[in-house]
Design goal:
The structure is a homodimer. The first copy, chain A, has about 200 residues and is mainly α. Helices cover about 80% and strands about 0% of the residues of chain A. The structure holds a DNA duplex (18 and 18 nucleotides).
Chain lengths: ~200, ~200
Amino acid sequence: MPKVTEEYRVSKRAEITSAAMRAFRRKGFHATSMADIITESGLSAGAIYGHFGGKNDIVLEVASRVIDARIGKVEELSSARPLPAPAELLRLLASGLAHDLGRPAMLVQLWGEAVTEPALRALWGLLVGRLRAAYCSYLSLWHQSEHGATVADADRLAAEQVVLFLSCAQGYILQSALVTEFDGEAFLRSMELHLPR
Amino acid sequence: MPKVTEEYRVSKRAEITSAAMRAFRRKGFHATSMADIITESGLSAGAIYGHFGGKNDIVLEVASRVIDARIGKVEELSSARPLPAPAELLRLLASGLAHDLGRPAMLVQLWGEAVTEPALRALWGLLVGRLRAAYCSYLSLWHQSEHGATVADADRLAAEQVVLFLSCAQGYILQSALVTEFDGEAFLRSMELHLPR
DNA sequence: GTCTATACCAGGATAGAC
DNA sequence: GTCTATCCTGGTATAGAC
């Protein structure tokens, strides 16, 4: 295969994915039809089906992008000095998410979809596993640097606490998607006060 | 209107709602079609549309039932003595939910749906508001009885913390619906260790 | 690779008899 | 109130020309 063709293919997929994200962001996930994606991309049905197997395929790509960005952020912040505090990390994740998606309604719809779509569910499991691992090593570093814990103690604490932090991130996403008068700042302040430090 | 007719109407609605819940529990929410509900109920399309405006209507009823049961549980446990600890309350809610729904996949799909269905979203907002209020007064009682806090202090603490507890409940639901090898016990133990007490 | 046009299907809802 | 049969819409995916 000639290299130009491969590059072209990749960039075309990215272009379509971006268009889909814009559409999803505007109308939500279920309400967006292939016709919407076609319009938004400026391409045609045929062109899109030449690059993706179908709507499901596109969704997988979009999900990867969004969650990958979060994993990248946690990893990046893990090597920042001074290390941000746990609640501060949540705040930074939230603002990155808001920047990418506006209201993260799309993610909530993605969860709903993953319940019945095996491929999406598998992908989600994989990505959240990686996110958890990244969060876990961040937490371990935090306990070492902030409280001078031994590596073993820090790892154990991190493993226990990571599920709590993930839940808070998920709760934040859910509530900001569904509660009309959601007060993100109040939520994050509450995390600062009452999450383990 | 004659009383028998009204009673009949109510019991018929309940019968249909139960059938719908069984179907949802088995196949998930989106994958369940009206045809499935019709089969499961042993009734006909006409009969069902005589009692509900459509699928959406049925969903609203189901959602009410499920969340109402949770609210009732929190209120009931608030007057139990000795008052269960916060993490214990979560454990009891989780087991009640498992009893009603098995894997609470249906709830996650409901969230996804609520993003785009205004009626469902409004209902969800209302119900979660009530759940939050119930949880809040429970937490206040807890701080008073366990730590001898003044009413004012207990109320303030409760208001700050309630969002954290709700997030944990939501995280539990999400993860138990989507993570194949989800370990509910480990999750709850982690809550016991690291949530405020 | 991409376009237009269209086949095809699932599923929610209704009509009309009883 | 309930049944059967059927309509109709919205939406995915494909066929075939360029």
